[in-house]
Structures are given as C-alpha cells and as structure tokens.
Amino acid sequence: MQRENFGNRFGVLVAMAGSAIGLGNLWRFPYMVGEYGGAAFIFVYIVFFFLLCLPILISEVIIGRKSQTNAFGAFGKLAPGSPWRWVGALMVLTPVIVVSYYSVIGGWSVEYFIKACMMDFSAGHASEAEFGNMFGEFITSVWTPIICHTAYLLLTALIVVAGVKSGIERFGKIMMPLLFVIVIVIAARSATLPGSREGLEWLFKPDFSKIDASVCAAALGQGFFSLSAGFGIMLTYASYISKKENIAASSAYTAVSDLIFAIIASCAIMPAVFAFGLDPEEGPGLVFETLPYIFSMMPLGGLIAVLFFMALIVAALTSSISLYEVGVAYLMEEKHMSRKKASVLIFVVAWALGILCSLSFGPLSGMKLFGNTLFNFFDKLSANWLMPLGALLIVIFVGWRMGRADVRDEFTNGGTLKANCRVFGVIYFLIRFVAPLAILVVFISNLVM
Ligand code: PHE
Predict the structure, then answer these.
(1) How far is CA 270 from CA 27, 191, 248, 275, 363, in A?
(2) Distance from Cα 20 to the centre of ligand 1, integer Å
(3) Where in the cell is it found (predicted)?
C-alpha cells in the first residue's frame, strides 16, 4: 500500500503544531499558571520545555520518520522480535483512551460556542455564581453533553477520513493561522482593560521563592501534555514526513509555536481575571466558569466570547485528529483495513468510552475506579502515568537501543544537515541521560504526592 506523506514543510509544521496546540494551551496551561504561582511557574516551564520536553519530542520524531510506519509497527520494525512491540501497543491504546475523554471536553466547547452565539454571555447576563451553576448543571446532565460529545467526535472522524493530506494537513493550514489571529485579538482586548496591568506583572515578574518540587513536577507534566509527547502521536505524524525534511527544525518550530501560543493564551485570560478582581487560582473551571462571567462584563464581550469558544473548538480539533489518526494508522497498516473502516471502528470505541466519561460527571459519578470518577481516572492515568511512561520508554529506545549511528543518521539526514550535526552531541546527551532521569523523578513525585 502506498503511504501518504505531508505535502511540504508548512504542512508538517501545521499538523505537528496543531496536535501540540490544544486544550492544553488554552485551558490547562492558564489554570496551571494560576495554581502554581504565575511567572515562577512559566520560568520553570520554559527551562524544562527546552531541556527535556523538546529532546523527548525529537526522539519520538526520530522513531517515526526512521520507521515510516504506525506506532505499533515502528517498534517491531526497528527492534524486530523484541518485547518493544508491546511498547508500540501501549502507544496505540493510550491515544484511543485520551481521544474519548478529550472529546467530552471538546463537546463542552461546542455547547459553550453555541451559548456564546445565542448571546448568553453578553452584558450583565448573570453573576459569577450563576455561571458556575450553569456549568455544573450542564456537565451533570445526561443528554446535552452526550450529544455535544457525539457531534465533536464526528467532526474529528470526518477530518481523519479525508486523509493525511486532504484532511489533516488542509484543515491545519486553514485553521492554525486563524487560531493565532483570534487569540492575539483576545489578548489585545484583555491587556487593554483598565486594571489589567497587575495581571501582566503577575505573568511576567517571577517570584523565584515560589519554585518548589511540586511546581517542577507540574511544569514537566504540563510540558509533555502540551507537546503531545510520550504517546504514539508525534511518532505517527513523523512517519508521514518525507526523508528530505529537517526533523530537528520541524520539532523546534513545533515546540516554539506551542510555547508562544500558551503564553499568548495566558495573556488573553489572566489580565482580564485581574482586571475584574477574580481569583487566578480558580483551577479547571477557569475557562468555563470564570471566563463567561468576564465576557459578560467587558465591552465587546459577546463577540470575544464567540471568538474564544471558536478558538477552543479549533485548537481541540487539531489535537483530537492527531489522537484519532494513531489508531487509524495502526488499523490500516497492521490490520489492512480501509481508512474509512478503521475510522468507523475507532469512532465506535471512543464514542462508547466517551459516553461513560461524560456520564461520570452526573448519573455515574458514584462509579469509582481507584477512588476516581471515570473521567478523572482516564485523565490521571494518561497524564500522570502513561505519558511519562511512554516518554521514558521512547528516550530509552532512542538513547540506548537504536545505536548512535542510526540516530545521528536520522537526525542529520545522513550527515547532510550541517547545523544538525553540530548540535547532535548535546541533544543525544539530553536524550540518553538527562531526560530519563528527569522523567523518573516526575514518576516518583507522582507516586509520593
Ligand atoms: N497537546 C494537546 C494539547 O495541548 C493535547 C494532547 C495531549 C493531544 C496528548 C494529544 C495527546 O491540548
């Protein structure tokens, strides 16, 4: 079977950046910054991001491009007959779990986008507590969240069915630039509100005394999540990158755009939170409870709300298509299914799991797995355990199993990319020693905390 490839460098970048930039940037990063002390968290985040997360991403990309196959097949191909193939299986399964609960939040964004269009967040509509109640009632209800989850997952499936080039790449090329424009517009609005200065200072003036072990662990975990590293995702996308591309450059551009986007997203949210005297440590409810209230209070807020929830949907979609594609690529290549059939199968599994996750906020909230509702269990299992575990196995594979010459060859396109040759030693050192150690520390801190 002829494998599809991305069309050109920009196509590769929008697909990879599209996967990286998602709810993690617009929803998770700002509330983590809020919870873990503002600028100090951002500082630690940036250091870890380049020192650890980027080498992990590069490792994953090396495996994908070298093997030119899906996440399961890749390990089998590069380490034939070894137990590494089970690592590949883990990397196919995890994204299927994640897409099911990611799609539930994607569904919430769809509902909030519709609410915004119906002017529910226009001037003086409700108090902060009422917005909180509105969100609470929505997620605990049965049907609306399930319908939204279904619609969202269907949208994801449709883009994936269209294929790598005409679905994933084309969608990204249109949507990613749009996404940046929208978030910059919102940030400009937010930063010019009276009283927003305090918020900007809080974001950019670090208080280093706030840095402790929990800040470090949270920053590293958020870095993995935000870069979509440690799953078979970037590996699968990298398998569609042509042998002529510079994968170090693509990875670095992806990381830089992901970081810039997260910071702009915080600039869009935090100054407004301060301008209205709200609590920056609100946590996961920030986007769905605090923000609607802010929109209802600010001039032009109704319009900004529509733009914001549209951005949330677009950002989430470009990530969920990457999650979805991992399973599809596996079924197509290992089980010889057509793209359509593979997409339907993944849809059914993710849809059913997603329904259970959605119900775990309401009728199924009493059903606990290790003390967590199903949604929280999936979230914790993937972000705190499977992702670091996947990341650890990936760096061990590239650093200790593949062999230096092969890794170097892939990283430098057979020695032809001079700049890559120059930085290779440093990157290889980070991959072999620094990244595995740091991931182990995160693991242990997750165990203890
Ligand atoms: N990186 C995506 C984000 O920031 C989320 C994601 C995580 C996507 C894991 C795929 C896998 O939202």
Answers:
(1) 12, 9, 33, 9, 34
(2) 6
(3) Membrane
Q: Is the pLDDT of residue 240 over 60?
A: yes
Region of residue 281 (left: phi > 0; alpha: psi -120 to 50; beta: else): alpha
DSSP secondary structure string, 117-151? HTTTTSTT---HHHHHHHHHHHHHSSHHHHHHHHH
Look at the block and give the residue holding tokens 């590949």. 88
Residue 19 has pLDDT above 70, yes or no: yes
Ligand 1 centroid from CA 227, angstroms: 6
Summarised one tens digit per residue, pLDDT across range 284-297 is 778 898 889 888 88
Beta carbon of 229 within 6 Å of any ligand 1 atom: no
pLDDT one-digit tens code per residue, 57-101: 999 999 999 999 999 999 999 999 999 989 999 999 999 999 999
The three-class DSSP label of residue 182 is: helix
Which ligand 1 atom is the nearest neighbour of the CA of 20? 1
Mean pLDDT confidence for 266-287:
85
Burial class (CB in 10 A: 0-12, 13-18, 19+), 326: buried
Report the nearest-CA residue for atom 10 of ligand 1.
228
CA pseudo-torsion sign 318, 320, 323, 325: negative
What's the Rg (C-alpha) of the chain?
Answer: 21
